[in-house]
Amino acid sequence: MTKQEDEPKDLQPRKINRNIVYASLGIAGFLVLPVVLVAIINNADMTEEEVNAPIDVMFYQTTAQCEADTKKQQDEYAVSLKKYQAGQIAQPLTAPTIQTKDCAAQMQAAQAEYNKTAPVYASLAECQAEGVKCEPTPAGAPIAGYRPIYGGTYIDPDDANHTSTNSGGSHHRVYDTHSVYLSSTPGRVVTPYGREIAQTNTGRVIAPQHSSFAAPSRPIGTSANGTIRGRSSQGFGSSFKSTGSGGK
Q1: What are the phi and psi torsion angles at 230 (to 5°)?
Q2: Which residues, 6 or more positions from 19, have their beta carbon under 8 angstroms from its beta carbon?
Q3: pTM of the predicted structure, to 2 decimals
Q4: Is the confidence at residue 19, as pLDDT, over 80?
């Protein structure tokens, strides 16, 4: 399996256009599904450079990680605000967007997105052939088989897309989540489009722009053989303009 790899730690953040490409799957058949990726919005206008452009996002795998990181951000902001009010610094830190009280709702949304979009394979071997770690689908799942293991979610706190939810009488702001799968290579995750990212840190990280792309719809039925690999090598990734590093 040929993978396109990105090393976020070597990238430098810069402002980018948040209008990204969304894609949907055209599915033929019910049991063994040939996957066809259909571009919706100017997919061919994106270059590999644009797809890999660094963006500043949050990455969490668990609610506990989110709560610990956001509390640290809030504490640091409170200290800087006091220093600013006392005239000790010219400007306080930027107030954190994601609040600790919202972490549980935020990570529940990430898990729900993963449950909805993760492809399901008839056999463990078919799933592992995608270069991801795999697990049996849980009891009661709509489709029985094997799916990539949830590897965490990227959240863009600067994205205007968010929803408001109420839980236990409390109001929560939930941002769009972009869940990824655990790669078979330690220290890496794989996007639903088959692009691999080196990711060992949590909290605020620099990652390629494609980490914020919405996941395609899950293929109907079983098996989704080649779904993740095909999205990268024949579908989504192949429609970008060539910059000398990929595409057509």
Answers
A1: -65, -35
A2: 41
A3: 0.72
A4: no
Q: Residues with Cβ < 8 Å from 72, sequence gap 6 or more?
A: none
Sign of CA dihedral 189, 193, 195, 197: negative
CB 59 within 8 A of CB 66: no
Please report the pLDDT score of residue 33 as a whole number.
28
Cα–Cα distance, 97 to 73 (Å, whole number): 10
Q: Which of 147, 76, 67 is nearest to 106 (CA)?
A: 67
Quick check: bond before 179 cis, omega within 30? no
Q: What are the pLDDT digits (tens) for 168-221?
A: 566 667 888 999 999 999 999 999 988 999 999 999 999 999 998 889 888 888
The DSSP call for residue 77 is H
Local structure of 175: helix, strand or coil: strand
Q: What is the pLDDT of residues 110-148, one digit of tens each?
A: 999 999 999 999 999 999 999 999 999 999 888 899 999
Pull the structure tokens for residue 53.
């452009």
Strand partners, 56: 206
Q: Helix axis angle, 103-117 relative to 63-85, nearest 10°?
A: 140
Give φ, ψ of 41 to 5 degrees.
-130, 105
Please give the torsion angle defined by the CA atoms of residues 63, 64, 70 and 72, in that order, rounded to the nearest 10 degrees. 180
Phi, psi torsion values for 202, nearest 5 degrees? -120, 170
CA distance 156 to 106: 12
Q: Please give the structure tokens belonging to residue 18.
A: 């948040």
Whether 29 contacts 223, CB under 8 Å? no
Q: Where are the alpha helices (DSSP H) in the chain?
A: 48-51, 63-85, 103-117, 124-128, 227-233
